Amino acid sequence: MKKIIFGIVLFLLFTPFKVTFADGGLELKQLFLTDVQLESIAWNEANTIVASGQNMLYVSNDNGKTWNEVLLEESIQVQMWDGHQFIAANSYNGELLVSKNGYDWESVFKPGSSDDYWWQTIEKVNNRYIASAVIFKSDGSSNEILESEDLRHWNEVKTIVDKSLSEDDQYAASIKLGTVVYTVATNGKMTLIGGHHGRMIYTNQNQQWVERPLTSGFPDYYVMTDAQKKDEFNRNGFINKIYWNGKEFIAIVNNVFSPDSGIYSSSNGVTWKQVGQLPPTTEVEKVIPTDIGIFVIGAAHINNSPYVPSFISFSTDYKNWSTHMFPIQGDIVYDAIWNGNELLAVGTKGVYQVKPTPEKVYFDFKKGDYWSDDMAWAIDNKLISGYKNVLISSGKTGNLLKPYNTLTEAQALTVMYRYFDPVELKNNNTSSSWWAAKAYQLANRDGLQPHGSVTSTNVGDSGITRGTFAKFIATKHFGEAVSIEDAIAFMYEAGITTGYPDETGISPMTFESYGKDKLLKRAHIVTFMKRYYDYANKH
Known about the structure:
Elements: E1 3-9, H1 10-13, E2 21-23, E3 26-32, E4 38-43, E5 49-53, E6 56-60, E7 68-72, E8 76-81, E9 86-90, E10 96-99, E11 106-109, E12 116-125, E13 128-137, E14 140-148, E15 155-156, E16 159-161, H2 163-166, H3 169-174, E17 181-186, E18 191-195, E19 199-203, E20 209-213, H4 226-235, E21 236-244, E22 249-255, E23 261-266, E24 273-277, E25 282-289, E26 294-300, E27 310-315, E28 322-325, E29 333-338, E30 343-347, E31 350-356, H5 358-361, H6 372-380, E32 387-393, E33 396-400, H7 409-420, H8 422-426, H9 437-445, H10 457-460, H11 466-478, H12 484-493, H13 522-538
Parallel strand pairs: 16-20
Antiparallel strand pairs: 1-7, 2-3, 3-31, 4-5, 5-6, 6-7, 8-9, 9-10, 10-11, 12-13, 13-14, 14-15, 17-18, 18-19, 19-20, 21-22, 22-23, 23-24, 25-26, 26-27, 27-28, 29-30, 30-31, 32-33
Helix pairs in contact: 6-13, 7-9, 11-12
């Protein structure tokens, strides 16, 4: 495909949206404005993001900070990143294209001369692609579920109706396969397809696609009358998203008869229970699961309103939602991705950055503590990720920071190298399976002389003293080993700490008042790193 690359960084071309505001626990900022409506976005799980609009691509190679504009001869919609390449579809005839970098595209599938494909979704599970497409031919159109191993050759998915459902002839006849697919998920053993008419299709051990509706997994399904089954089937009509969260499948289902969305879970992909619901009168269009919670975007149906505004919501428990409502008529959000630190959403007005505030993500984050602002900075800069989806109380899970827990040496080194060498830290080329092995490899490379090691993980998982941390950061700063005395002097000089106060309440900032043998808390390191960051930026 021919293209013209302007190669101009967009912060020079587009006037940035100056106002950053929090509404309901979400901070939203418009990164740039475009005259082109952006309808899709994909991320390569590293640094490259591709957003697509009419005859235009916008490519970022720094995780969304700056963007390059790419002019195309025809419009394409970016579908996904499959682990090796971006996949996009020609908006006019359904030709499929792939690209490693977002700039250079190669055709891998061309419909027949009299055929057009409208791809509704393409997803990859277990080394094969599952897709939904409307195929337009000279004699009409049809919805098809397709599968492929290479994107070049596609076969129609053949299904069978679950035996327990086929016993009810009248009902079985009413659940003829709905061939619009919105989502695919797998736990490695079972693959679920969800889409139109509340459909679940899964593979069993014989690799057969077995068709059954979500409602057949409800506890009271088999005591329902035929009319009740049909009513439940129709009510739960659109499965927008299924994903495996490491423990169970989660399904987001839109009600056909009202703009309400239910959230269901299943450990086996067959039996389901409701675990949450979005605020009333919101219709989900996209669902983005992340390691900190779940985002949804869609349309809000407001009584007596002449228009249906877009919304973005976030939740950590599927029940309590932080929502931003777009107030401008025609300001529509179509798609979004999570880049590991923030949500990037695209729509009629360009690209938005969306972040939940820390208190909405972490159960134990509190505003007004001495560490609060520094912790928010550390979270924003990926130095601290906390403990995800842990038990908080009986029957309740969530995310925790544990700011008053003792900081271990392994945690301290990991936080330091997330700041100093984030790319190298991710490049885990060690032979050890210990989570902190790479941080220790870097610490030894830089002469920090840590106490723990891959063969002494119990030492690394023990608390770190203020003195040891001072030596770590001073050695890293100067590029050579320093004495404990010089390290503590650097902590004072850099404004990282003033040490402990004496009986008069004044900090004398002496060697003794530093408290070199006292253990650090997790809250301490974010304060130390933020103050070091401020010092380094001035020098």
